[in-house]
Amino acid sequence: MERRVAERLRGALSPFGFEVHAFKVGWYNAVVQPAFHLPYPDDTLAFVVLSTPSMFEKALKPFVNKERLKIIRDPVDQCVAYHLSRLKEKFPDQAVDIMFDYELLPNRKPKFLAQTAAHVSGAAYYYQRKDVKLDPWGKKKIFGVCIHPRYGGWFAIRGLLLFPDIQVPFLEQCAPVDCVSTEEQRIELLEQFNFHWQDTRYRDIIEVKEKYSEEQKAYFATPPAERLKLLGLTQEIHRSIFH
Description:
Layout: H1 2-13, E1 18-24, H2 25-29, E2 44-51, H3 55-67, H4 75-85, E3 97-100, H5 114-120, E4 125-127, E5 145-147, E6 156-167, H6 183-195, H7 214-221, H8 227-230, H9 234-242
Antiparallel strand pairs: 1-2, 2-6, 3-6, 4-5
């Protein structure tokens, strides 16, 4: 069952630069605090959705051109929501619950821990402080980061797809690829991500097969409030509101 669902999801999302990776809810719930548990039985089938570097050209720009007068918030969030919501049409006989990476609980905490979901699904390895044996940071707060074996840090975790009616007790877990395997590399990665994240060097901690284009880098380096200008949207939105 998982294979058929995965094939249908990949057929719908891969042409637009998205990846999907399956996991059981129980794998995720076993490694997060109870406050972040997903409210489904342990054997429930779920998928984490990633955007790859090609999503910018294959999904975002066509979406903006088609829906330019309807874009009222972050174009990437709206584009992802559009593509994931359409998946329900592919599964008319199944319930499909969607969680987006930007959604928050009433207590302002995220609905799910995206990097943990990516790790348990085998999509990307979540490197954390505990992965370094000789910790050089003392009392400093150190955040972890996921690295994809193909894209390094040039990707994003966009959401979860959950299938409440599909139980997969025999689904086998695939470990993520440990592509930053030495102590020195891991220290370098966490140093760059925590203290120099704006120069994006951490994204190239491994040799990548594909990365963001210069246009895409400029887009994501621009403050969110100014990104609409890069896409040529502000004047059209202004006209659509006042005319």
